[in-house]
Amino acid sequence: MMMEEKIAEMRAKLEEALKGAESETSLEGLRVEFLGKKGHIAGLMQHLRDAADKKEAGQAINRFKADAEEAIAKAAEALKEAALKAQIRSAKKYNPTLAAEKQFGSYHPITLATREVEDIFRSMGFTVEDYAEVVDDYECFEALNIPKHHPARDMQDTYYLENGQLLKTQTSAAQNAIMKKYGAPLRAIFPGRCFRNESTDACHENTFFQMEGMMIDENISISNLIYFMKTMLSEVFQRDIKVRLRPGFFPFVEPGFELDINCLICGGEGCPSCKNSGWLELCPCGMIHPNVLREGGIDTEKYTGFAFGLGLTRLAMMKYGVKDIRDFNSGDLKALSQFRSN
Ligand code: FA5
């Protein structure tokens, strides 16, 4: 048989074999059978010496070899594609008409309350600042007119770190840095997580959120403070809220006040959430002490200012009717996923 005929026969054989190869293993078998060291093509090469035109026969064998390699590679590719298609066909189909499962993600109620208060203050020209949770003694106390060994430090049972730093007990810790950053006039709020070694109960947590606010300008007085507090509360609760202002002591304000709101859980009758008093301490505030302004580089001849420390976690309790503050840190998705922003 002439070489050409032999090659044609092999081509037909390969074509036929490829049709029946349905797995990678059978393809590999064909590759060895045709292209292997002892395969058909190597066999053809051995008959080369009998060919009349060796050059032409050699070229024909090489063409066939290249075609065979390509055909086997193509078949392997087609097999892979078919396998993928089969996988997709058998996969669980997305059905847009099925009801969605009821496990949506949702924002934490503290996040929702924070954003709401931020929007209200932004609309009144305040900037929103971020601040560290680990601070040093100067920021948290000394810059706030609370020198070392001052009894006011006992009001906050502080977590100290081995390097002398501490976990922020109050968002007031950022006051000094923000004054230094912007100077006067300034309007800023700064929400943050605070930590105190408290025994927990329905209205106390060892980790809670506050939202600090500061406004410093010429002629700022207590009336400005009361105006901003009232506006914020009526916007957050979308109704009239009974508030009371009583004197409060904080070394960094003078005069200082405690702003309480009527407990919205019991309507003022008294419950564990308000320690049976009918009132909830929500937002201590006052006129910034001149020592604190000076420490922040503010000219006290020209400027005065107010500051407040809103209890954000307690605000969220009142807004969402959460009776126990500990639910917020519970990680209980069933409870927390009830809160939605719309
Ligand atoms: C302060 O932390 C002052 N830095 C607030 C301040 C700022 C006064 C600026 C004057 C000027 P106080 O310790 O009272 O104050 O905390 C402020 C608010 O944070 C409280 O009214 C309360 O709403 C909330 N709060 C305090 N401790 C806890 C706690 N353990 N759990 C939950 N909320 C708390």
Short note summarizing the structure:
This protein has 342 residues and is an alpha+beta fold. The chain has helices at 3-20, 24-35, 40-46, 54-90, 109-122, 137-140, 175-182, 222-237, 290-295, 312-320, 333-336, and strands at 127-128, 134-135, 166-167, 186-195, 207-217, 243-247, 253-262, 279-281, 285-288, 304-311. Helices cover 39% and strands 17% of the residues.
Describe this structure in words.
The chain has 342 residues and is α+β, with helices and mostly antiparallel strands. The chain folds into two domains: 3-90, no CATH class; 109-339, Bira Bifunctional Protein, Domain 2 (BirA Bifunctional Protein, domain 2, 2-Layer Sandwich), CATH 3.30.930. Helices cover 39% and strands 17% of the residues. Strands 1, 4, 5, 6, 7, 8, 9 and 10 form an eight-stranded mixed β-sheet that branches. Strands 2-3 form a two-stranded antiparallel ribbon. A hairpin with a 5-residue loop joins strand 6 and strand 7 (253-262). Helix 1 (3-20) runs parallel beside helix 4 and helix 2 runs antiparallel to helix 4. The longest helix is centred in the N-terminal third of the chain and has 37 residues, at 54-90. The protein is elongated. The model has no long low-confidence stretch (mean pLDDT 90). The chain binds adenosine-5'-[phenylalaninyl-phosphate]. Residues 170, 172, 196, 198, 204-205, 208, 210, 212, 250, 253, 256, 281-282, 284-286, 307-309, 311, 313-314, 325 line the site of adenosine-5'-[phenylalaninyl-phosphate].
